[in-house]
Amino acid sequence: TPNNSGVWNELESTYNIDEANYIIMQEETSLNNIDKNKTLFFGKEPHYIVKNRCPDCFRNFHFEDGNSWFPQTWWVNIPYNELKNLKPNKTKKLSVVNSNKRGTKGQSIRYDIIQKIVNKYPKEIDVWGGITMGRRNIGSFKDVLPPQDKKDGLLPYKYHFACENGSKPFYFTEKIIDPLLCWSMPIYWGCENIGKFLPKGSYINIDVNDPMAIDKIIEISNSNLWENSLDKIGEARELILDKYNLWPSIGMGIGTDNLLKKYIF
């Protein structure tokens, strides 16, 4: 929120659940006996990771049900006001941030394609995150990043390879929003209808199943697309900060049971 105030328009956060007009549940809660008549549920994981719903809640939002986008919280430790005023300042070409997880199809695809890029183009990409464990600062591999703070792997780079944990409609996460907030152009695989949410030209779709995918990623990273796309990236940043951000999503969700129908389609 602006100034880290916990206030967004007419919304104000409170830690006292008894004085809250609405309760926000993201995926699940350890609290017992919450008042579901004033609870907004937002599902944040696809069914192959966890399948949670709250049909008795005041609002039951889930992107898999086609009534919501994934309400965004960014994994970049930069406050809202600083992000609003952030200017692009790039010194490097291409990065990726990845864990060493391989449990889902998307995680496995992402891990394998990163390894292929590193093997074929070791000087063309910087690799950050848990995937660097055991090989930090060796070749393409840089370092592990602080929890939920990817800025060192994003801010200096024009392009970022962004691959979701799966490919579904309405499902886009910090994988694509973090690079955009840092003025990095995502080379992206994931949300099947991302063009409904973000302006074309703010990202580049890549088919990770294409045998030429890694060559195309490197070709893009050596192009001038980033320089020619700053206006579109700027538009995407405004949408992320002021529409898809968790706070405005809550505000809009109070007034409708279908965010997509009212605000997208």
Automatic annotation (TrEMBL):
Residues 88-207 form the Fucosyltransferase C-terminal domain. GO terms for molecular function: fucosyltransferase activity. One of its GO terms (cellular component) is membrane. Keywords: Glycosyltransferase, Transferase. The keyword Glycosyltransferase applies. Gene3D superfamilies: Glycosyl transferase family 10, C-terminal domain (3.40.50.11660). InterPro entries: Glyco_tran_10_C, Glyco_trans_10, GT10-like_C_sf. Pfam families: Glyco_transf_10. Belongs to the glycosyltransferase 10 family. This is Fucosyltransferase C-terminal domain-containing protein. It comes from marine sediment metagenome.
